[in-house]
Design brief:
CATH superfamily of the largest domain: MetI-like
CATH class of the largest domain: Mainly Alpha
Helix content: over 70%
Distance between the termini: 62 Å
CATH topology of the largest domain: MetI-like fold
Order of helices and strands: HHHHHHHHHHH
Radius of gyration: 25 Å
Strand content: under 5%
Number of helices: 11
Number of domains: 2
Largest sheet: none
Structural class: mainly alpha
Number of strands: 0
């Protein structure tokens, strides 16, 4: 994160450092609008960023996705295949997290849970809150994908002597994954961007760095373009990899209707 902050901070930190130089050297007159940023090395910019904006613990974004995926599948199975009491519990969970803003959920977890003795640091609150929230969305993606598989696929697997677990793992799940991959990718990109709301519970994020640096320097447009570029640079590769995987799965499913030379 220090590299991101240092790069984004170049214009703002130049202004802050420039002001410090004017205070220390009153006889030196510098132009505030000058952009001679290349006189400082990247190491110096990183040191300046750490001095003005101390780093905090960072949580890998893959942790959010892991919670959403691992919890989403049981929710989908419980809502579509479970007993009535389990279906009711899963439905209540899903509707609650889909029907309330993620910002309110984070504030509740961060400020509300300590009232009953469950206090968590900001990064852990963001991890749990965003993971639980997107698990509700992922469960609906998985449920729709599973229900799109014809019932005949299950029956064919049973006729081959497969157990329900083996039929699900070898027959149903690969087909459902191919159907669920595009909306999953969309949700993961949205989750990646929604990590920016963690600033409300004092978690240092790229959006937080933008706000602090832009307020300090007044360079909202330039820093906003830089931060947007960082988000694009980190989200577009994931979408590209997902599209390549989707095409690969589609090619594997393409089976000729009849073998060459076989009788029609």
């Amino acid at each position: 994160m220090a590299g991101f902050v240092a790069f984004c901070a170049i214009p703002a930190l130049y202004g802050l450092h420039h002001k410090a130089l004017r205070n220390d050297r009153a006889a030196t007159s510098l132009n505030d609008n000058s952009w001679t940023i290349w006189r400082y090395t990247p190491t110096e910019w990183t040191a300046l960023a750490d001095r003005h904006f101390p780093r905090q613990d960072q949580t890998p974004r893959s942790s959010y996705w892991f919670i959403a995926v691992v919890l989403g599948m049981p929710l989908a199975m419980g809502q579509s295949k479970g007993p009535r009491w389990m279906e009711a519990l899963c439905t209540i969970y899903i509707e609650f997290f889909r029907g309330t803003p993620v910002l309110v959920q984070l504030l509740f977890l961060y400020f509300g849970l300590p009232a009953i003795g469950l206090a968590m640091p900001g990064w852990l609150t963001a991890l749990v809150g965003l993971g639980l929230n997107y698990a509700a969305y992922e469960s609906q993606v998985y449920r729709a994908a599973l229900e799109a598989i014809p019932r005949g696929q299950w029956e064919a697997a049973y006729s081959l002597g497969m157990s329900p677990t083996l039929a699900f793992r070898r027959i149903v799940l690969p087909q459902a994954f191919r159907i669920a991959l595009p909306p999953m990718t969309n949700d993961f990109v949205s989750l990646f961007k929604d990590t920016s709301v963690a600033y409300v519970i004092s978690v240092w994020e790229l959006a937080t760095a933008y706000r602090e640096l832009a307020n300090a320097s007044g360079q909202f447009l330039l820093l906003g373009v830089a931060v947007s570029g960082f988000y694009l640079a980190m989200s577009l590769p994931m979408a590209r990899i997902a599209r390549r995987l989707e095409r690969r799965l589609q090619n594997r499913q393409a089976v000729p209707a009849f073998a060459p030379g076989a009788p029609a």
